[in-house]
Amino acid sequence: MGQSAKSKRPKSEGEIVVQEIVIFGTSTLTSEQVSDINNSLTSKTMGDDDEVVGEYITYEFQQRGYFDAEVTNLKVIPLDPLAKKKPVRIEAEVNEGPLYHLAEFKFTGNRALSTEELRQGFPLHAGDVFDAEKVRLGIESLAKKYWTTGYLETSLVPDTQKASSGQVTVAFAIEEGIQYRMGELNIESKNEAAEKLKTKWELKPGEPYDLDYLERFLSQNRELLPDGFDNDRDVLWLRDCSDNTVNVTIELDLKRQWKPKPQDKPCEAEKDIPKGHIA
């Protein structure tokens, strides 16, 4: 959602820490607003590359309604070139452009969640100063609503439409995909801990699959898991496309013979329907 200054220095794989920053060239911001942006960026660690630095600065302006802000001149001055994370002084000329306000959020393609439910996911309302960060947080909130109700392949594609009146409309084209439900829980062990874990599992077969539930379950029952248990290695969840369910396997026998995990695939992909994603 941002623009950035073109890189004027060789790219580096290192990091910099903003020690000092001076922003100039703005025509409508108050000194307090510029100071607030400076304070937000001071002490921040970022990649040692002018384009990355420009994106950070631009995004600060976009959080304050200046959606078209552009860094037109940028200098990154090392204060200690030998440091692992180099402290730097940044001098940036910025053309902030017009101040935008939110007109509305629009949604098409939603069926599982109502338009009102989707709007409630955004900490931004019609008439508010447009804030790109609040839009990002809203998209994360919507993604989580879908993921925790079984829609694991939902696609949320925003289209930002600016009007000459200084209003911004954000229109979302939504592809919800299919809804997955809980299938079988398999806990591979014959010890007492396995039986206890089975009784504590609350996601019943046939209920919408909650993508966050498995991680919460493992965290809440860590004392029942063996020493050395690894979530990535010892847990498997697989979609079953014959009935659109998700089967979960938890391996408690850490001395078992190793074998590659089966590859999980979205069911829509197998049905030649384009795979969804959260954009």
Summarize the structure.
The chain has 279 residues and is an alpha/beta fold. It has eight helices and ten strands. The strands form three sheets. A four-stranded mixed sheet has the order 2-1-4-3. A three-stranded mixed sheet has the order 5-7-6.
Give structural notes.
There is one protein chain. This protein folds into three domains: 81 residues, membrane protein fhac (Ubiquitin-like (UB roll), Roll); 75 residues, Roll (Ubiquitin-like (UB roll)); 84 residues, Ubiquitin-like (UB roll) (Roll). It is α/β, with parallel strands linked by helices. Helix content is 25%, strand content 28%. A four-stranded mixed sheet has the order 2-1-4-3. The chain starts with 14 loop residues before the first strand and ends in a 9-residue tail after the last helix. The protein is built from eight helices and ten strands. Strand 9 and strand 10 form a beta hairpin.
Distance between the termini: 12 Å
Strand portion: 25-35%
How many structural domains can be distinguished in the coordinates? 3
Strand order of the largest sheet: 2-1-4-3
Q: Sketch the major β-sheet.
A: 4 strands, mixed
Using only CA atoms, what is the Rg? Answer: 24 Å
Q: What do the pLDDT scores average to?
A: 90
Q: Structural class of the secondary structure composition?
A: alpha/beta
CATH class of the largest domain equals: Alpha Beta
Low-confidence blocks of residues: 1-7, 270-279
Number of strands: 10
Helix proportion range: 25-40%
How many helices does DSSP assign? 8
